[in-house]
Amino acid sequence: MEFDLIELIRQRTTQPRDDVRLGIGDDAAVLAVPAGQELAVAIDTLVEGVHFPPGTAAADIGWKALAVNLSDLAAMGANPAWALLALTLPSADVAFVEGFAEGFAKLAQSHRLALVGGDTTRGPLTISVAVHGFVPPGKALTRAGARVGDAVLVTGTLGDAAAGLHALQQSLDDGDSRAGLREFLIGRLNLPTPRLSAGAALRGQASACVDISDGLLADLGHICVASGVGAEIDAALLPRSPALMALYDEASALQFALSGGDDYELCFSVPAQRLADVQADLSRLGCGVTKIGRIVEGAGVRVRSTDGEWLATDRPGWEHFA
Ligand code: ADP
Ligand code: MG
Questions:
Q1: Ligand of minimum distance to the alpha carbon of 88
Q2: Using a 6 Å cutoff on CB, does residue 130 contact ligand 1?
Q3: Residue 135 in contact with residue 40, Cβ under 8 Å?
Q4: Domain residue limits, the chain
Q5: Taking the domain 151-304, which CATH number applies?
């Protein structure tokens, strides 16, 4: 039973790479780290009902399980190479595994990432993916390193995924003329795009970087703690999608953009003299980029409203075990 599922996954995810000496099928994978590179590794787990709603399409789960991990490599400025997959399934559901592998492989192959091993067990639907990537020695982006006076920027738009989750929880009327806008937001929730080329382009440019998985306030807050600084952001500058602005009032859209999780955009700081170059580089890659604020002395993240008042930001995003 388990063997058939593993063989199915192996067949559906093939990605030849010279640095994979031994992939799926033995007791361990054997991998060759290229000379002169450092290895960046990360692991994230998705649990049904916690990280995705029951009923999410298998292909979307497969995509997202990998995407959230690739987003961590993007935030480090690493180039992805290999992944391990630990799959816990309630039953040997071939249709689910086929769908899952299809979504996983679609994203993996677009980054030439090889699935080199894993584990398959029975239990409540839970997916852990570990990813491995390369970064030139000493060049990994970290959360530490932001300096007073640096600009704070984000890629893409903020709040879409949280709004997508909200939209999913509403009962949808099929004939609704705004169904297409909801589809866009739900797509941002289920099929996030890891910002790998942007992350790589930020190596040697950004002073600190984090990916936004738990909401802008929480994740920029991590940069502040690690760097020993504070940050000020302007609500009026937050990039928000046309779909978010069309479907939600200003207060809700702002709440989603500041505190909503699951966007998997990058938030990073850049010294003022490199700002224009960085914006041009990311734009050339087709990656939207917006300056939203600055690094200041002190601690924590402050948000200035459109009328210049400081907002009370007592809900710092999604806190696990809160
Ligand atoms: P072992 O009992 O030695 O750990 P397994 O039967 O768990 O071996 O796995 C056999 C092979 O299949 C190993 O190479 C393992 O890495 C791979 N494998 C198992 N499950 C998965 C999975 N979900 N995705 C990718 N590879 C897997
Ligand atoms: Mg095993």
A1: 1
A2: no
A3: yes
A4: 2-135, 151-304
A5: 3.90.650.10
The partner residues of 249 in beta bridges, in order of sequence, read: none
Give the pLDDT confidence of 146-169 residue by residue, as tens digits. Answer: 999 999 999 999 999 999 999 988
For 291, residues 6+ apart whose C-beta sits below 8 A from its C-beta are: 151, 152, 153, 237, 275, 279
Q: What is the pTM of this model?
A: 0.94
Structure tokens at 47: 């649990």
Cβ of 24 below 6 Å from ligand 1:
yes
Q: Do the two domains 2-135 and 151-304 of this chain adopt the same fold?
A: no
CA of 117 to the centre of ligand 1 (A): 6
C-alpha 152 – ligand 1 centre gap (Å):
42
Topology (CATH) of 2-135: 60s Ribosomal Protein L30; Chain: A; (3.30.1330)
- For 243-282, the pLDDT digits (tens) are 999 999 999 999 999 999 999 999 999 999 999 999 999 9
- Of all protein residues, the one whose alpha carbon is nearest to atom 16 of ligand 1 is 117
Q: Where are the alpha helices (DSSP H) in 170-229?
A: 179-190, 196-201, 216-227
Q: For residues 80-105, give the mean pLDDT.
A: 97
